[in-house]
Amino acid sequence: MAGSSTLKKIVVVDDHELVLNSTVEALRQQYVDAQITTAQTAASALAQIAQTQPDLAVVDLALPEQPGQPSRPEVGLQLLRTLMQQYPSLNIVVQSANAKSLVRLKPAINAHEGGFIIADKSLSLREMLTKVEWAMQGLVFTPKEMRTGLEIKPEWLEVLRLAFHEGLQDKAIAERMSVAERTVRHYWTQVQDALGVYPDSGKNQRIQTEIRAREEGLID
Fold first, then answer.
1. What's the CA dihedral at 27, 61, 47, 113 to 10 degrees?
2. What is the per-residue pLDDT for 201?
3. Which of 160, 50, 146 has its CA nearest to residue 94?
4. Quick check: 64 and 72 in contact, CB under 8 A?
5. Which of 68, 85, 97, 176 is deepest in the core (most CB within 10 A)?
6. Three-state SS annotation for 127-173
7. For residues 57-78, b (16+ Cβ closer than 10 Å) or e, as one string?
8. How much is the average pLDDT of 106-123?
9. Domains and CATH numbers, the chain
10. In whole angstroms, what is the distance from residue 21 CA to residue 61 CA?
11. H or E element at residue 85
């Protein structure tokens, strides 16, 4: 499979040095003449990608923002959001042991022009290289649960984030989103319908919404 040797630029992002090195070694065998650079934090990944303008980014989902900070999926998610916004034609492979939280990026993935492949970390190196080749071809591959699961709108995710991460009430959410309060209430209705949360005697509907949103990976 070492025939795909046309000059390519690749950035590999992973905070685990052993995984980083094995990924780079596998890519060097597949893309003999490729220029491969590495990053171990989200901040250094953005810097490397801005500098090298790569054809492909291979990104671990759980990353630290800066050296010495803990690895968190939310950091990887934000990095991916930024990359898709700034580099709409960048081919991306995301490596993750638990891809459920990537459902939050579904609208952005659907709009992304470049390849976008989600690769389970349990894949063999050969299988991972196949996914890399798919990304290079501009293909999109997401797990089955993302293809058949919830259809999520960006404004719903923002309501969930503001309510459950920042603890805001509807009026404050409306102000932050620059919409009417009734629009926020409409978003709640849509979210709750998508999550299968309906009025139930003795249960707090907002709390039930939070529980279901966490189960579906929409919030941490």
1. 80
2. 74
3. 146
4. yes
5. 176
6. HHHHHHHHHHCCCEECCHHHHHCCCCCHHHHHHHHHHHCCCCCHHHH
7. bbbbbbbbbeeeeebbbbbbbe
8. 89
9. 9-148 (3.40.50.2300), 154-215 (1.10.10)
10. 17
11. helix 73-86
Share of the chain above pLDDT 70, in %: 95
- Determine the distance from the C-alpha atom of residue 182 to the mean position of all C-alpha atoms in its chain, rounded to a whole number: 30
Query: What's the pTM value of the predicted model, to 2 decimals?
Result: 0.71
Instruction: Indicate the SS3 state at residue 118.
Output: strand
Sheet holding 91-96, edge to edge: 35-39, 9-13, 56-60, 91-96, 116-120, 140-141
The dihedral through the CA atoms of 146, 148, 154, 155 has a sign that is negative
**Lowest model confidence (mean pLDDT) among 71-80, 175-184, 197-206:** 197-206
Q: What are phi and psi of 97, to 5 degrees?
A: -80, -20
Q: Write out the two tokens for 74.
A: 């939310």
Residue 206 has a pLDDT of: 94
pLDDT band at 1 (very low <50, low <70, confident <90, very high): very low
